[in-house]
Design a protein that fits this description.
single chain, 183 residues, CBS-domain, four-stranded mixed β-sheet, three-stranded mixed β-sheet
């Protein structure tokens, strides 16, 4: 299995619902709910929402957790590595809340601005630890899933997003392989 290529298990970006980076946070909420309903009813195999720029190029993804980041814009100022180094893990919530003034506005006030916040302001744009090439082996993916704890990896081909590798698909293949082993 470790020699299997990403291409074999990836899902093409054509199979995912998409939203414009110019859409609002409220639009993203609506689209995520629609994707979830389609997934639960069996009409769709995807509930991840991909984000496209004006050129229809996929630039990232939106998940429900990203909506929280979108509501509290101050998270854009947070550098997690610097914060961990500065405050340590034990006091991170108290220290970050004080340092960045997080969640101080009433929640209803934040939600009331959902029509003014745009997806491009909080989209989850993948970093190097969340991207793989279509020709990479799954062993690299195993490492990235374990170390970075992402549920999906962005699949690249010639510097363009072409698909997603979902942890659930890799796990299914792992379980199948383990069951085939004789103990």
């Amino acid at each position: 299995m470790e020699k299997m290529k990403v291409r074999k298990l990836m899902v093409s970006i054509d199979n995912f619902p998409k939203i414009s980076d110019k859409a609002t946070l409220f639009d993203a909420l609506s689209e995520l709910e629609t994707a979830q309903e389609a997934f639960l009813s069996g009409k769709s195999a995807q509930r991840i929402l991909l984000v496209e720029n004006e050129k229809k190029q996929v630039i990232g993804k939106i998940s429900p957790i990203d909506l929280f980041k979108g509501l509290e814009k101050k998270y854009n100022k947070v550098n997690v590595e610097d914060t961990l180094e500065k405050f340590g893990l034990k006091y991170i919530w108290t220290s970050m809340r004080k340092e960045y003034d997080l969640w101080e506005s009433p929640f209803k006030d934040l939600c009331g601005k959902a029509g003014e916040i745009h997806v491009k302001d909080f989209v989850n744009i993948p970093n190097e630890g969340q991207t793989v090439d279509v020709e990479d082996t799954l062993s690299k993916c195993f490492h990235l899933f374990v170390v970075n704890r992402h549920d999906t990896l962005f699949v690249m081909e010639e510097n363009e997003f072409v698909g997603m590798l979902r942890f659930s698909d890799v796990y299914r293949e792992l379980a199948k392989t383990m069951k085939e082993c004789k103990f």
